[in-house]
């Protein structure tokens, strides 16, 4: 990291000193509003960090559980200021999955801003206690206590094919490299602009890294859209209008939801200058509609997995690009990142040829938490421009044209549904945990080239008397294990799973039965 770049934690301190009274985050559901100022964020997180420094015996990562409460950000910063990584878990993650993550990490404490139902080991510090510590007198924390450049800053868990989520570890340096580039996206985010950033994604989804850290770095205000607001169209449009947001960060699917109503336009959100998208395919149709409704805003497509810190390529999709290039590109790599397209033997392919996208560079994760086997398979070190960099095999197919990356879909059984990353094996393995289910195959269903829903074919070990009731029971059982978005919309019993000649599951044939 060069000397001119101020690192994230130093920047947070500077921002708090310059704009103490500016709101750093606002969360509004109905008539209930919670917010925090910049000085509040800094002081509260300092005191909580001090408390952690005095009380905790280990540097184990800290789980932070909750939703869109501004105290979540206080907790995140307190962890890293005290030299510990944080691991965000959203309230919408089911209890058993939360337990699985907590069991993986074995944190010394869990900071909760909402009630945690899970049965876990480790001390739970609830919101009341967090607020008491954060607002008590004194207790600063010296900057030397904070996580260093090579320490893990946060850990986000993603769907794992075996049914157990994988913890992606992102260091402070990875994050700083990401931010340094992200502030230049679209129109660029001028320091001191006091921009409002829309926060749609839950903090346990790495897309939120884009809005949260752009906001923290540039001294802006984060306008959160809680789940209750996102689920109620009237509240949603009201909230978008009230937000006065300048920068939009979401999956394209969420923009599509908003586009359903004609009121979603620059009249509703006159200050919007940039749409920053990541996480799934951005279609020409979505861009066309956005260009019409928001003629003065830039639409930016970015690409990257959690394993390379949110995003590593970007392209501003102009009218001209949108009218002439189908499918849309996902962009050119940021400085400090190189994209290689490789064949099944790892040989680098020339421009234009299709192969696996490998990301090389300074924001690639140091690997999954406690998972040497998967790390060996997916991560490595290579030389680029005379220096050593980590690389990550994405499992995405793609190709380059004049240095511009195009995304060609997944090479394995991972899918994106409304921006959420799902391993089909994860869903299948959770079906198999249910008593009486012998085989399970989950198939993605497509509309307009994007996954629009999941369907499951199950083989029961006993005679199914009442299919409707059995499926309702299975749904209930699955809800205890998986987030709502991972539960297939269509579930059917099959007498047998079709197989290919060499005995493999014939996914295409299963799909035709569902
Ligand atoms: P996640 O780790 O949840 O961010 O998911 C990463 C995966 O999302 C990538 O490996 C891609 O398969 C997909 N993805 C991310 N960005 C894009 C994009 N702009 N266009 C198409 N797919 C994307």
Walk me through the structure.
The protein is α/β, with parallel strands linked by helices. Helices cover 31% and strands 29% of the residues. The protein contains 16 helices and 26 strands. Strands 11-12-13-14-15 form a five-stranded mixed sheet, sandwiched between helices. Strands 16, 17, 19, 20 and 21 form a five-stranded antiparallel sheet that branches. The longest helix is centred in the N-terminal third of the chain and has 18 residues. The chain is globular. Bound molecules: adenosine monophosphate. The site of adenosine monophosphate has 18 residues, from strand 13, strand 20 and strand 21.
Summarize the structure in short.
The protein is an alpha/beta fold and 514 residues long. The protein is built from 16 helices and 26 strands. Helix 1 packs across helix 2 (38-55), helix 2 (38-55) crosses helix 3 (70-81) and helix 2 crosses helix 5.
SSE topology sketch:
Elements: H1 8-18, E1 23-29, E2 32-37, H2 38-55, E3 62-66, H3 70-81, E4 86-90, H4 95-105, E5 109-112, E6 123-125, H5 127-135, E7 152-158, E8 166-171, H6 172-182, E9 196-199, H7 208-218, E10 221-224, H8 227-230, H9 233-243, E11 247-250, H10 252-259, E12 274-277, H11 284-293, E13 298-303, E14 313-316, H12 319-324, E15 332-333, E16 337-342, E17 355-361, E18 367-368, H13 372-378, E19 379-384, E20 387-401, E21 404-410, E22 414-417, E23 420-423, H14 424-432, E24 437-447, E25 450-460, H15 467-479, E26 490-493, H16 507-513
Parallel strand pairs: 1-10, 3-4, 3-5, 5-6, 9-10, 11-12, 12-13, 25-26
Antiparallel strand pairs: 1-2, 7-8, 8-18, 13-14, 14-15, 16-17, 17-20, 19-20, 20-21, 22-23, 24-25
Bound molecules: adenosine monophosphate.
The site of adenosine monophosphate (AMP) has 18 residues, from β13, β20 and β21.
């Amino acid at each position: 990291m060069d000397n001119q770049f101020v690192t994230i934690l130093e920047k947070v301190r500077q921002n708090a000193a310059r704009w103490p009274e500016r709101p750093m985050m606002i969360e509004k559901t109905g008539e209930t509003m919670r917010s925090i100022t910049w000085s509040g964020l800094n002081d509260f997180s300092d005191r909580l960090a001090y408390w952690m420094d005095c009380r905790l015996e280990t540097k184990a990562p800290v789980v932070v559980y909750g939703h869109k409460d501004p105290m979540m950000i206080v907790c995140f910063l307190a962890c890293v200021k005290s030299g510990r990584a944080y691991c965000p878990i959203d309230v919408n993650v089911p209890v058993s999955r939360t337990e699985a993550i907590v069991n993986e990490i074995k944190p010394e404490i869990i900071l909760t801003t909402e009630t945690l139902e899970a049965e876990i080991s480790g001390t739970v510090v609830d919101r009341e206690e967090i607020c008491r510590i954060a607002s008590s007198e004194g207790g600063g924390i010296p900057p030397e206590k904070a996580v260093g450049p090579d320490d893990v800053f946060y850990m986000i868990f993603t769907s794992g094919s075996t049914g157990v989520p994988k913890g992606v570890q992102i260091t402070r340096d990875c994050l700083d490299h990401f931010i340094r580039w992200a502030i230049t996206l679209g129109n660029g985010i001028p320091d001191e602009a006091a921009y409002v950033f829309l926060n749609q994604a839950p903090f346990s989804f790495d897309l939120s890294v884009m809005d949260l850290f752009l906001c923290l770095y540039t001294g802006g205000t984060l306008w959160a859209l809680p789940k209750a607001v996102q689920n109620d169209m009237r509240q949603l449009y009201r909230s978008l209008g009230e937000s006065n947001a300048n920068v939009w960060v979401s999956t394209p699917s969420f923009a599509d939801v908003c586009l359903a109503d004609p009121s979603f336009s620059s009249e509703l959100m006159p200050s919007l200058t940039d749409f920053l998208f990541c996480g799934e395919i951005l279609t020409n149709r979505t861009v066309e509609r956005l260009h019409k409704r928001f003629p003065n805003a830039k639409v930016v497509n970015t690409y990257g997995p959690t394993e390379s810190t949110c995003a590593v390529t970007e392209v501003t999709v102009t009218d001209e690009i949108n009218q002439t290039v189908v499918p849309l590109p996902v962009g050119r790599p940021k400085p400090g990142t190189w994209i290689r397209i490789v064949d099944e033997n790892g040989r680098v392919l020339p421009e234009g040829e299709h192969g696996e996208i490998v990301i090389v560079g300074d924001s690639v994760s140091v690997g999954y938490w406690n998972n040497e086997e998967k790390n060996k398979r997916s991560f490595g070190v290579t030389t680029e421009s005379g220096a050593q960099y980590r690389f990550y095999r994405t499992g995405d197919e793609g190709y380059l044209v004049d240095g511009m990356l195009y995304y060609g879909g997944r090479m394995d059984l991972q899918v994106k549904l409304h921006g959420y990353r799902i391993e089909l094996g994860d869903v299948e393995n959770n079906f198999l945990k249910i008593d009486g289910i012998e085989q399970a195959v989950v198939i993605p269903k497509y509309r307009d080239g994007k996954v629009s829903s999941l369907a499951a074919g199950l083989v029961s070990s006993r005679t199914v008397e009442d299919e409707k009731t059995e499926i309702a029971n299975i749904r209930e059982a699955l809800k205890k294990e998986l987030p709502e978005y991972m539960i297939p919309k269509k579930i059917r019993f099959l007498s047998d799973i079709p197989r290919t000649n060499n005995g493999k599951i014939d996914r295409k044939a299963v799909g035709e039965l569902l």
